[in-house]
């Protein structure tokens, strides 16, 4: 399938989910996750009108950056190794995986401007998942005040891999509730307006529950996407 066809499908699903939940589709940004695909396929996504691309490895990001430059806005969505920060920090606008103070310190040191960060939260509690425990999120965010280049744009989570709709919904709702708690702190460096949640499998539910950024790989740019 062409990326453009997949995108039309996904956009119409997002519109439907917005209608269900009384939201406006303009509130939802689609990030094409290009980590599994070629530079050509990423290029096709940009030509289809996708303005946001996500990668989870420095090599992938840099090789695509060589071809596409800053035409798309770049999102780093995967676990970030501290020593890799310097390779990508001046290429990305958003970091979706801030999960420890040592990483915040390195980002702060290597960037000379504010980096839009998502604090990654392990809502589902699965051991295999990265991210901060929900109970520790508020204290973690307060600790970020010391870093002048860190801006907390929002929270991010990866839902458990399941088709159990109620479990997915509960996960997304918990992230939304946590976002509201952060907003009530009224921290200048942590407006926390965004919610990065929803992937190929679960973006419709994520949008119904308040996602403002969905990170979609296989259903959008996968060569054999089934939508
Ligand atoms: C790979 C990945 C995605 C996209 O996954 P799909 O299931 O292919 O849509 C989204 N978010 C993160 C953090 C990822 O690593």
Automatic annotation (TrEMBL):
SUPFAM superfamilies: PLP-binding barrel. Residues 161-188 form a coiled coil. CDD domains: PLPDE_III_YBL036c_like. It comes from the Bacteria. Residues 6-223 form the Alanine racemase N-terminal domain. InterPro entries: Ala_racemase_N, PLP-binding_barrel, PyrdxlP_homeostasis. Keywords: Coiled coil, Pyridoxal phosphate. The modification N6-(pyridoxal phosphate)lysine is found at residue 35. Pyridoxal 5'-phosphate (PLP)-binding protein, which is involved in PLP homeostasis. Belongs to the pyridoxal phosphate-binding protein YggS/PROSC family. This is Pyridoxal phosphate homeostasis protein. It comes from Mesobacillus maritimus.
């Amino acid at each position: 399938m062409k990326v453009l066809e997949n995108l039309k499908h996904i956009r119409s699903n997002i519109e439907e989910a917005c209608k269900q939940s009384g939201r406006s589709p303009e509130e939802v940004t689609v990030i094409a996750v290009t980590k599994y695909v070629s530079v050509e396929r990423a290029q096709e996504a940009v030509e289809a009108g996708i303005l946001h691309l996500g990668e989870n490895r420095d090599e992938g990001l840099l090789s695509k950056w060589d071809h596409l430059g800053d035409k798309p806005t770049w999102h780093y969505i995967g676990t970030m190794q501290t020593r890799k920060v310097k390779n990508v920090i001046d290429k990305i606008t958003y970091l979706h995986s801030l999960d420890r103070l040592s990483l915040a310190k390195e980002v702060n040191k290597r960037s000379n401007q504010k980096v839009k960060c998502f604090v990654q939260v392990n809502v589902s509690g699965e051991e295999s998942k990265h991210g901060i425990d929900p109970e520790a999120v508020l204290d973690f965010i307060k600790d970020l005040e010391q870093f002048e280049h860190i801006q907390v744009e929002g929270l991010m989570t990866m839902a458990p891999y399941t088709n159990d709709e109620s479990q997915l919904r509960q996960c997304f709702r918990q992230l939304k509730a946590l976002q509201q708690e952060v907003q009530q702190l009224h921290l200048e460096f942590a407006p926390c307006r965004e919610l990065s949640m929803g992937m190929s499998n679960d973006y419709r539910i994520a949008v119904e529950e308040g996602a403002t950024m969905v990170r979609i790989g296989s259903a959008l740019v996968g060569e054999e996407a089934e939508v």
